[in-house]
Amino acid sequence: MFDQITPLVVELAASPLVYVVLFALCLVDGFFPPVPSEAALVAIAAIAATSGQPVLAVVLVAAALGAIAGDSIAYWIGRRIGFARLARSKRPRIAAAFAFAERQMQRRSASLILTGRFIPVGRVAVNMTAGATRLSYRRFLAISAIAGLAWSAVSIGIALAASSVLHEPIVAALVSMVVAAGLGIAVDRVLGTVSRRRDARPAIVPATRRRDPETPPGAAASR
């Protein structure tokens, strides 16, 4: 079966249009989560690793640039809408994602944007919240660029690992897609667990100097 399909898939992957399509998918996925950019990236990378086409370096750059551009669009959408409107989503899961992102953005914006890039729905909430909370765009863009490159490199790394074991392009692409999806779920779970543990910690109240309730203030100094 694969012997008949593989040549067609490889021929399609060798087209220069594959870079444009990948860039567009990664861009739209930045503000519209249903678009499967991870799946497309790892599938194309797996085919490239097993067949030599398309060029992996260009795949990495196209995906990273698309991701950075999409994240910036999400940022400006959030900045235009404002956090109050974002948090009023009728879907509880989406509202909770924005509430979580808003809490964490005040504490650790860099790590949140970096890890959020690996969570399909989470990155949209994070980037829109960054805009809604007026995080400096210059700072956001710098972090987003690092996150986009890291995300693209990790996704291609997954594809390369799968391709080194599975030499059939289509099988390697399918396995890479499953692993990439699992990575996103794992990052989401770990981030959620860490956040819940931090939120559950009791607030530390600074110790104050004990004073004898029967001794008026300043009495000790007058002795």
TrEMBL record:
<comment type="similarity">
    <text>Belongs to the DedA family.</text>
</comment>
<feature type="region of interest" description="Disordered">
    <location>
        <begin position="202"/>
        <end position="223"/>
    </location>
</feature>
<keyword id="KW-0472">Membrane</keyword>
<keyword id="KW-1133">Transmembrane helix</keyword>
<feature type="transmembrane region" description="Helical">
    <location>
        <begin position="55"/>
        <end position="78"/>
    </location>
</feature>
<keyword id="KW-1003">Cell membrane</keyword>
<dbReference type="Pfam" id="PF09335">
    <property type="entry name" value="VTT_dom"/>
</dbReference>
<keyword id="KW-0812">Transmembrane</keyword>
<protein>
    <submittedName>
        <fullName>DedA family protein</fullName>
    </submittedName>
</protein>
<feature type="transmembrane region" description="Helical">
    <location>
        <begin position="170"/>
        <end position="191"/>
    </location>
</feature>
<feature type="transmembrane region" description="Helical">
    <location>
        <begin position="12"/>
        <end position="35"/>
    </location>
</feature>
<dbReference type="InterPro" id="IPR032816">
    <property type="entry name" value="VTT_dom"/>
</dbReference>
<dbReference type="InterPro" id="IPR032818">
    <property type="entry name" value="DedA-like"/>
</dbReference>
<dbReference type="GO" id="GO:0005886">
    <property type="term" value="C:plasma membrane"/>
</dbReference>
<feature type="transmembrane region" description="Helical">
    <location>
        <begin position="140"/>
        <end position="164"/>
    </location>
</feature>
<feature type="domain" description="VTT">
    <location>
        <begin position="35"/>
        <end position="156"/>
    </location>
</feature>
